[in-house]
Amino acid sequence: MKSTRPQRISTVVDGHEIIGEIILRTRNDIEVRLSGPLPLVTGMHIPYFAMQFQNYQSELGDRTARTLLAELHRRARLIEENRERITSLRLTQREELERFDNRLRELELQQRSDRTLLRRRFRSGELTQRDYQAALEAHRKNIAEIEGLRSRTENAFSELIPDIPADDWEQVLSLLQLEDAPARFKPGESM
User: Fold this and answer.
1) Strands of the sheet with 29-34, listed across from one edge
2) Helix (H) or strand (E) holding 41
């Protein structure tokens, strides 16, 4: 049975009462939202094979909700303490991501053009199979290198505050109203 009405919860952290609500509670899932200026959300899941031993609709759910709420409070404090650094990094990150996306577009267009030319030269006998494959591999390596740099830039927030899971940064940026990053370009897509 699923609990659909938010249930108010509280816990004490460092002598302060922290308030939130359970926004989803089923036998094997629980989600908690922190009340306040940064209404962060997190949850836990019990895998199917373990459901016979654990159940979030019991005291385990209450304890887990309080633990999650305390963790959300800790994260919210870290975010508030680092708000200026996060904002600054996001502005820099946007520019870098845009630059990487533009470079990836250029490399893909160059790869398409070169592949046609290389294929023609290979069929005419000007290139050996080894030379043909080496030239194609050089393009793949260039693209992979830029994608790696882009990925590191995209994950820079996890390095800034390692205690906040990488999966939560989209939520954090949205709450701080810093979420409008350029769309991710993937090689093979046309823009």
Assistant:
1) 7-13, 16-25, 29-34, 41-45
2) strand 41-45
Q: How far is CA 21 from each of CA 10, 33, 58, 68, 164, rounded to the nearest angstrom? A: 8, 5, 16, 10, 20
Q: Which of 182, 14, 161 is nearest to 102 (CA)?
A: 182
Q: Which residues contact 37 (CB under 8 A, 6 or more apart)?
A: 76
Structure token digits, residue 183: 């769309």
Q: Please tell me the total number of residues recorded for the chain in this structure.
A: 191
Whole-number Å distance between alpha carbons of 125 and 36:
70
| Cβ-based neighbour number of residue 90 at 10 Å | 18
CA distance 25 to 66: 13
Give the sign of the dihedral formed by CA 166, CA 171, CA 177, CA 179: positive
The stretches in the chain having pLDDT less than 70 are: 1-4, 50-52, 179-191
Report pLDDT for 127. 93
Give the C-alpha separation, 176 to 40, whole Å.
Answer: 11
